[in-house]
Amino acid sequence: MFVTGVIAAAGTALGISLFGSGAMDRPDRPGTDLAVQLDALRGANDLVRAGRAEVGRDPALYPTAYGRLEAALPTAGRADGASVPGIRPAALAHLVRTDLLDTSAWRAYYVCLSLSASQGSGAAGAPRAADAVAVLERAGLRAQAEKEALDYLRAPAAGDDAVTSLATRAAFLRTVACVGRADQVSPGSLSRLAADAARSDQPVPTLYAVEALRVVGVRARADRVLQHADAGRTTADCAGLEPIQRAASALLGARLTRQTRTCLQFALHDPDPQTRWLVRRALALGTPDKSSPLPAPPATVRPDGLVAKSPTQLGTLTATYNAARALTASGRQQQVPVWLKRRLKQLGSDTGLDPSDRLPLAMTCHRLSLACGPQAEKGAEEAAARTVPARMTTRNQHSWYGATAARAEFGLGCPRTSVEPPERKGTALPATALHAVVVLADAGCATQAQRLTEGSDLVRQARQALRDGELTVASDAVQAALATDQNIPQAFWDELPASLKPYRDAEFPDLYADSPGGTASADATRAAYYLLA
Fold it and tell me: Could you say which DSSP state residue 439 is in?
């Protein structure tokens, strides 16, 4: 997957470019070299990166979980994972507390995977519950993680699509089993998970669901995946199916064809440790060619048992969508870099593209007026079918923003939804309320946007945000002011170039940073060009 939570992020990235009253004398804006300078944000996968700053080699939960599992698999000269360094509970607990990219239950899942690799199987077996509980207790996360996992298994989030729901329930079932709480999952929940796995046509979440159910003693089938597996395994086009999906399909069918082996060999050095782990597992199904044994895994397990993030700088569809909005806001959508245009069209023709990536791909291609192919077309269809929650709440913000943003992008009209008036300090709106106003206005909900901004001084808030080093807040405040017909004095536009100058990247001045003196990011660049539009 290229993104996690991309649609919610896309929702907060929306802006209004043509609202407000009357013509204004706007200063000339920079951006002549924006398309060229996007090369500074080019990822190794030819998508736009979130930021220009290089990612460090600090340990993280995701690479620790899958890097350890990969290291535990047999390689040339080593039959099992006996040489994988044991993991220090204190180091893992500290990582759980500090790596905040995922929710509590997902972090607990990665803890369980990390500990299972210590068993030497490399196939995510069940670690001792006492070990997992001890780490989670030490991290202060046990109760919260267990509640989140059990609640989702009982009642999956209504806004999640079928693939997300299947993958999440599979992960959380492994988590509750890992901490000794599998008896709290009802037989009905297990039966529904097994039935959904049989209906799924996505190999990776289906494999995880089948394996999670096996851990708790429930036999599940992968009927639909296996019905379509032979064509995917024998096709001569390695690019026609993602390596991770091809590997999962082979594992579900317990069969490795010659073509699958050939295709999977190319993925042994994939930057994603989860992909490498499944690829190595699949390659182990056949009889290895002794003249070409599998190389050692590229990730190194540290003496404390943790694994560092890969230095490979990858782009995401979230950042790419932000870049697309920057290009369009600056009037340069015809100058899409060749490498980005080519990559988007490749994804649009990729039958193995993760379904969760179809909608952000479609939104990006629509924004750039590109015909990207069948996957983007499916994403556009999904946007039209997506339902906006009737009321935005703290719990459903993610799905609310995503669905409303999709409707806004494709001009599908104002949805039937409501947003609570925000609590405010003085005339300033909270950042989340500004996001809501902007996305509502872009979706055509002018009346609701107007109601939410009553009594606010958005121009004053924008000026203060720029002084405080909050470029995205300033941009949202101005878009909200334009959308709700608040008067923006000419003096503000006159001041804008000087106000934005500290945010320009020192090396790439047509890109912008999140705060003065920082390095460029896709989101900040989008925010700047919506201010300058």
Answer: H
